[in-house]
Amino acid sequence: MKTFVIQQNDSEQRVDRFLKKMLPSLPASLLYKAIRKKQIKVNRKRCTGETRLQTGDVITIFLPDDCLQTVPAAVEKKAAQGNAASLSVCYEDENLLILYKPIGMLVHSDAEHADNCLVNHLHAYLQQKGVYHPEQEQSFAPAICNRLDRNTEGLVIAAKNAAALREVNRLIRENHIQKTYLCILTAIPPKSKATLHAYHCKDTKTNTVSISDRPKAGYREICTSYRILQQNGSLCLAEITLHTGRTHQIRAHMAHIGAPLAGDNKYGNRQRNQQLHCTHQLLCAYRLQFEPEPDSCLAYLQHRVFTAPIPDFIKQFFPQDS
Question: Mean of the per-residue pLDDT values for the chain?
Answer without folding.
Answer: 91
